[in-house]
Each structure stands twice: as structure tokens, then as C-alpha cells.
Specification:
Layout (H helix, E strand, L loop, with lengths): L3 E3 L3 H11 L8 H8 L3 H5 L3 E3 H21 L1 H9 L8 H4 L4 H11 L6 H7 L20 H7 L4 H14 L8 H11 L1 H19 L2
Antiparallel strand pairs: 1-2
This protein binds zinc ion.
Length: 207
């Protein structure tokens, strides 16, 4: 076992992150980094983490993710289409819990643990990464998860009603425009909704 650090220890994980020069955005924070490398449980349990082991996982994932990103162009399109506001990502500056920030980062960078991403680790081709929650035989990507999956219709209804109060032309926007608006102008509402449906999704998956 290599060098160890007790979590959460920001400077250690952040410097590990910089050393690896990885594609995972550094502002994911400790929890985001460890979730991204499959060690989310270690973070939750405050367990010691093997730095060398984690580093090699990140390096390997970076290679995989780079190879995948060339094949998986829609993932890059999602990132490119959701135009960031000028300056830092707004959800990093606002009064949003760290868990919600982490979920928003993961959603934005296409590494949220929905089937689009977990199917990649399982070697599924993109179009076979179907939603296991509604079992509608459709790809579970960010759009399906946030805007379409019928499993979250009730929860989504409350969220969309709140958004429509703030965005009068909501119904005329494309899904990409809706995501852009939410990330840039209403990250707090988006963060709360994503947390709500992500935890609900988890409770169904692990039932
Ligand atoms: Zn679904």
C-alpha cells in the first residue's frame, strides 16, 4: 500500500488530482473525485485512501475516458452546448450544498452515475445504455434523466412549476437551452431537483 491520506483532506486529493493532470475537473472536490474513481464509499465512511492506487485508477480512467470521448462525441457535445456563464461556474459560487455542487459538476461533465456513464464501465455501446428505472428501452442520458424519465414525473412537476414562475418562455426553449438556463441562472433549484431524483433513483436501483 502506498502513501495514505485520511479523508476528507482537500489539499491531498486536490494535489493528487493536479499531479495526474486528469480530465476530471479539479473543482469536483474530494467527494466528486472519489466518486469519479469509484471510491465514493471511502469518502462517505472517512476511510483511509491509498493515494498511489487512486492515482493509477485516475490515470487509467483518463486514458479510457480520452479513448471513449473520441468515440462518444455526444458527451462532448453536451459539454459544448451548455454554454457556461462568464467567469466561474455559477453553481460553485452560490449557496449550494457540496453534495449538490458535486452532482451538478458530474451532470455537467457527463460523469454522473446514470446508465450513460455506468454502462461505459460495463462495456455497453452507447445506444444500449438503457434506463433501468422506467425500463422504456431508451438511453438514460442527462436529457432523459432530468427532463423525460416518467419515473420522476411527479417530482419533476413540482420543479418545473417553480422554474416556470421564473422563466416565462420555458416551454419555447429547446432542451439544450433549458439546461443552459438552469445551470447558469437557477443552479440552486436544479441542484435540489437533481439530488432529489438521483437519491430516489438510488433507492430504486439498490432496493
Ligand atoms: Zn427512464
Amino acid at each position: 500500500m502506498g502513501q495514505e491520506c485520511k479523508l476528507p483532506v482537500s489539499p491531498n486529493t486536490q494535489s493528487l488530482f493536479k499531479q495526474c493532470n486528469t480530465a476530471i475537473p479539479s473543482f469536483l472536490g474530494d467527494s466528486g473525485i472519489l466518486i469519479a474513481v469509484g471510491k465514493g464509499n471511502s469518502y462517505n465512511r472517512l476511510e483511509p485512501v491509498d493515494i498511489d492506487g487512486t492515482k493509477s485508477i485516475i490515470v487509467n480512467q483518463e486514458k479510457l475516458s480520452w479513448a471513449d470521448s473520441i468515440k462518444d462525441k455526444p458527451k462532448l457535445d453536451f459539454l459544448a452546448n451548455i454554454k457556461p456563464a462568464i467567469g466561474a461556474e455559477p453553481y460553485l459560487k452560490m449557496n449550494i450544498t457540496r453534495y449538490e455542487q458535486s452532482l451538478l459538476c458530474q451532470l455537467r461533465y457527463g460523469i454522473l452515475q446514470i446508465q450513460l456513464e455506468t454502462g461505459r464501465y460495463q462495456g455497453q455501446v452507447r445506444n444500449d445504455r438503457h434506463c433501468k428505472i422506467c425500463e422504456g428501452g431508451v438511453l438514460e442520458d442527462q436529457y432523459h434523466f432530468v427532463f423525460k424519465c416518467p419515473a420522476y414525473t411527479l417530482r419533476r412537476g413540482i420543479f418545473i412549476d417553480r422554474i416556470k414562475d421564473k422563466v416565462v418562455n420555458w416551454n419555447t426553449l429547446s432542451e439544450t437551452e433549458k439546461f443552459t438556463k438552469l445551470f447558469n441562472e437557477h443552479p440552486r433549484l436544479l441542484g435540489k431537483f437533481v439530488k432529489d431524483i438521483f437519491l430516489y433513483r438510488k433507492s430504486i436501483i439498490y432496493k
